[in-house]
Amino acid sequence: MSAYVLVDVDVLDPDGLAAYRKAGVPTIAAHGGRVLARSDDVVVLEGEWRPRRMVVLEFADIEAAQRWHASPEYQQARQLRLEAARTQSIAVSGV
């Protein structure tokens, strides 16, 4: 069953985040994932949540998403993200 990683991104350093994307996006494909959406144009439909930028990734299953996130190559890219943005992320199984 597919799994989706949803990431709420508050960009602090656009140049640093560009370096993260350059290093991090290839790790997604290397783990069988793909980027479904990335946008600053977030429309709140209900509630108090106000994400600034949303990213949605798709993986084959939750385990694949976890393997990607824990992989040494992503952890290296992740350090760039930690310096360039504040993020919150979750993984959910599809239906």
Describe this structure in words.
The protein has a single domain (3-93), classed as Alpha-Beta Plaits. Helices cover 41% and strands 33% of the residues. The chain has helices at 14-30, 62-70, 72-84, and strands spanning 3-11, 34-39, 53-59, 85-93. The longest helix has 17 residues, at 14-30.
Give the topology, please.
Layout: E1 3-11, H1 14-30, E2 34-39, E3 53-59, H2 62-70, H3 72-84, E4 85-93
Antiparallel strand pairs: 1-3, 1-4, 2-3
In short:
By secondary structure, the protein is an alpha+beta fold. The chain contains 3 helices and 4 strands.
What fraction strand?
A: 25-35%
Report the CATH architecture: 2-Layer Sandwich
Uncertain segments are none
Q: Largest sheet, described in full?
A: 4 strands, antiparallel
Q: What is the C-alpha radius of gyration, as a whole number of Å?
A: 13 Å
Sheet/helix structural class: alpha+beta
Strand order of the largest sheet: 2-3-1-4
How many beta-strand runs? Answer: 4
Q: How many alpha or pi helices?
A: 3
- Percent of residues in helical segments? 40-55%
Approximate shape: globular
List keywords for this structure.
95 residues; alpha+beta; Alpha-Beta Plaits; 4-stranded antiparallel sheet
